[in-house]
Request: fold
Amino acid sequence: MRFAPSPTGMFHVGGARSALFNWALALQQADGRFVLRIEDTDAARNRPEWTEGIIRALAWLGISADDPHFEGPYFQSAYAGKHRETAERLYKDGRAYYCDCTREQVQERRGNPHLGYDGFCRDRGLEPGPGRALRFRVPEGGPTVVDDRIRGRVEFEHSAIEDFVIARADGSPLFVLANVVDDVEMGVNTVVRGEEHLSNAPKQQLLWEALGRPAPVWAHLPVIVNEKRQKLSKRRDKVALESYQDEGFLAEAMVNYLMLLGWGPGEDREIMPFADMVPLFRLEDVNSSSAFFDEKKLRAFNGEYIRALDTDAFVERCRPWLTGESAPWPAANYDESALRAVAPLAQSRVAVLGEIVPNVDFLFLDEPAEDDRSWAKAMKPDTAVPMLEAALERLADPSLAWAAEPVKAEVEAAGAALGLKLGKAQAPVRVAVTGRTVGLPLFESLEVLGRERTLRRLEAALARLRAEATGAPDSAEG
RNA sequence: GCCCCCAUCGUCUAGUGGCCUAGGACGCCGCCCUUUCAAGGCGGUAACGCCGGUUCGAAUCCGGUUGGGGGUACCA
Reply:
């Protein structure tokens, strides 16, 4: 097994799925190896942080460098000598030849920019030299048959494969060559990669044969597409694994979802830990049609995984959003015991961990969050003012035990006196205290918030309501 | 253009000639529960691209067609 990404951008979900499939296969055998090779030969487009990102992302998915099945990372750039050596050998064996044609010359001869190389230098016997690239001599007749574990036999007529370049004029190897040379060196026997590489397979198989090695087992995975059914692109689609991680997707959920893109454990099962999938995974069972990356379903999976956590684990995993830089409240305001008190209530309400923030911010913010739409919806002066006044009066009673049930009873009673059912009566109170019409169960929230802060917020809301009523009516909002 | 891949509900898929009046999941809709919102429960919506074959019988096999997609670099 091997996974050979190129560090030319943020690590994305397609690469993650390929890595996972490779990983599952490697784990199936005691001596299975998952070789991570960073293909960094395109110096202009590589950056060290991308490489670090790949390793970090793999670790997040559970593909850990600490595992004995993991090997690497190797860096392709370190094997340049071997690449050149192999290119030279291919030339000496007559399997490749030098060519000094420019792209313009080829096009001029063929008259069509889409037609490939015409073999002009095939028999010119050019020696190595400046301006001369090395081309592989594709055999004259017959096809190369790629035996793909997912797609079956795929035939490529040699007449349709041009004599492709394997080394640039400066001697540096191209992907097709470097990739094969490294795989040969590293003893890779199974290549599982995206469908976009299918057209490289016959060329690489020819190279393996030219080097006197049996070609590896090939498996070309269906591409992952966007809603327009185009291959996911780093430019236009949200594909970075890191962005999902930042939003609060659980690695377990991401892994589970990704494994289901093109494959399934069978028996109508979907939610399943990776470890249980490993023994069940078979390349032969992988689908060959492209799959849409459905974030809605990913979210549903994530919700399932979040709800399956126990409270401690849930709190633990929410911590980065609660105590990190992004938290909207002053760090000193954070109170873990308050959080723990409402955590079970929040757990079934968040689909991604990041959503914990708007659910609990009323506990840690000095003022409730400002949400104009909520205010406009719940704070209709004719009902909100009397309701808040009544609630305030009842809740201010020092003999009232400050707990969810008694508080609920008071608010309910205050509403009843005004002819409001609890559903209506609680709305202004909720907005006054939390800033929003939706959120955690209100009375449990008030219990945790405490009497003082609750009363203060009710007063503040009432004051604002009165100010708006007596203020400039022409500027009132609908 | 050329080469190659693909084709079941909106989406991910089950299905490998009769078990299919096509199953599951996400989504969507409705109902129940309910202090909001979720979660949960119950129910519903919705698909074999098309045309020919083969066969007693086709979502399943074959051919064609249409439609998607990938590749077509001295990128990876």
